Amino acid sequence: MIKLRKVLDRPIGELTREGINGAHASRSVREQVAELGGTRAAARQIGRSERTIRRWAQNNTVPTRGGAKQSFDQAVADRRGSADYRRAQLNPRREKRMRNNGARLQFSGMAGPLNDSTDDSFKRRNIDVHISAAAMSDILDAYLVDGDQAAVDALGQALAEEYMYTENYGWQFAPQVKAVDFLRHNSW
After folding, report:
1. What share of the chain is helix, strand, coil (3-state, %, to 5)?
2. What does R_g of the chain's alpha carbons equal in angstroms?
3. Distance between CA atoms of 81 and 134, rounded to whole angstroms?
4. What is the DSSP string of 128-178?
5. What is the H or E stretch that residue 124 is in?
6. C-alpha distances in Å from residue 156, one per residue of 41, 87, 107
7. Looking at residue 184, what DSSP letter applies?
8. How far is 116 from 3, CA to CA, in rounded Å?
9. What would you measure as the largest C-alpha separation in the chain, in angstroms?
């Protein structure tokens, strides 16, 4: 069994993406320039010279003055928000395995069903549940087409159906969670 664990105060969309992909977003300026397609492509997207982009990558910093940081961050966010980027980040073997076999989900954090009960249904939970192949396909499709929030919504629907055994309610998560793990397994 291989376990991919993503822990501590990060948005659930990022945790879900990392759990699905087994990868994480680059943090250094050099890696982000590479994500944008290299120095030339980054310079074209940001509206700066190639020499400037190379200097930023070499120093691993983008100046905050003059809108440079905002332009750079917007270009990176646009790239990461694209369907092409999400497709490139998804491991094809892992995707196929999850679509065919489903996955075991371990969740730790504040969550609960969206129902008409009192507020005490939204509480700290530790969930360990098998997500079926059909539900994992829905989660992956939502991620590939519409991104993180759609994947989180599909995950909430899967939990309502496969953890609560009802289609009448959805599932809600706190904006920050402790851990979301998608576990690979040999068979069920």
Report:
1. 55, 20, 25
2. 19
3. 25
4. EEEEPHHHHHHHHHHHHHH-HHHHHHHHHHHHHHHTS--SS-EEEE-SEEE
5. strand 123-131
6. 37, 22, 12
7. -
8. 35
9. 59
Reported as a pLDDT band with limits 50, 70 and 90, residue 103 is: confident
| Cβ atoms within 10 Å of 3's Cβ, excluding its own | 10
Enumerate the domain spans of the chain. 3-22+91-183, 29-89
pLDDT tens track for 131-184? 899 999 998 899 889 887 888 888 888 888 888 877 777 787 777 665 666 765
Residue recorded with tokens 């991104």: 147
Give the H/E segment covering residue 183. Answer: strand 176-183
Amino acid at 31: E
Q: Please identify which residue in the block is written with the tokens 């928000």.
A: 81
Residue 85's φ and ψ, nearest 5 degrees, are -65, -45
Block residue for tokens 């590939």: 144
- Tell me the per-residue pLDDT of 10-57, one tens digit each, with 9 for 90 and over: 545 554 555 554 455 667 899 999 989 899 999 999 999 999 999 999
Strands 176-183 and 103-114, by their bridges, are antiparallel
Find tokens 């069920």 and name the residue.
188
Cα 23 from Cα 14, distance rounded (Å): 10
Number of helices and strands in the chain (H, E): 9, 5
